[in-house]
Amino acid sequence: MTAMVAAILALAVGTYAFRLVGPLLHGRVQLPDHVQRLLSAGAVVLLVALLATGALTEAGGFAEWARPAGVLTGGVLAWRRAPFVVVVLGAALTTALLRAAGVS
Amino acid sequence: MLDRSLLRDVSLVCLASGVVGVSFGAIAVAGGLPVWVPVVMSLVVYAGSAQFSAVGILLAGGGPVAAAATGLLLNTRTAAFSLAVADVLGDRGRLARFAGAHLVTDETAAFALAQRDPARRRAAFWISGIGLYAVWNLCVLGGALAGSALGDTARFGLDAAFPAVLVALVLPAVREDAGVRRAALLGGAVALAVTPFVPVGVPVLLALTGLLVLGRRV
């Protein structure tokens, strides 16, 4: 439990430090363009990897079909520029309905 | 001053984020974590994707160090966002600056940057920031308290909601920049390929090798 508290604290302090970068550096430093591009591209790469593994894997194996089908539905809705809430609910509803129908 | 469309968009994102918050609290507690873990984490960390990945790693037995490290790595992007909205935070005295910094998220940065006029930019940031912080934390608390009552959350398909949220968040960047698209596809493929063989949390870090094919902006 102590380790869990320490992990939450470390994550909180570190995250807040990242958030202070802007206000503290404002007007003092200008990041070179290619560094800014690398930072933002890195964030996108992390998020895509997170969504790919989150959609398809569970405990190191395949997550079964219901979840990826739901994520795919959400992805198609997002691609068609559906509002955020429709994307979220569409994904969850698809997965829930498939599971209710017996697809794990 | 503030048009209805901004308030409508903020409410919509608050609603969506509330749904995700409930699912975060419920998933954490249904997975076996005590109620205070998702609640405190939401108050002090306040970053959805990092919280989900940290809790996911904790629940999968990946350990607190991997959980914190992965969350921090994911949150490095907040530094870039806080630089982007620094002008909004910079001119309101010290307290507002330090409190406002905690409200910097993907969503608040997006709302602020969508406004041209400095006054509207400030208003968009603070309205979306305070609204999202309140809704997110209340909904996480609600989800955590309901967690065990909800029973098997897999029934509600909430596990599909989070990857779908990420799809919606990254789609604009992936759509408009071919280099980012290449890097993200390669990174995602690497993460999936190594998942069966490495500890939880590591696949996402290895995905950063995708940046090798980033190239120049065209």
TrEMBL record, chain A:
Write the record's keywords in alphabetical order, separated by commas.
Membrane, Transmembrane, Transmembrane helix
Pfam families per the record?
AzlD
The organism's superkingdom is given as Bacteria
Check the record and name the InterPro entries matching this protein: Brnchd-chn_aa_trnsp_AzlD (IPR008407)
Transmembrane spans: 41-63, 84-102
Give the protein's recorded name.
Answer: AzlD domain-containing protein
Organism, as annotated: Streptomyces macrolidinus
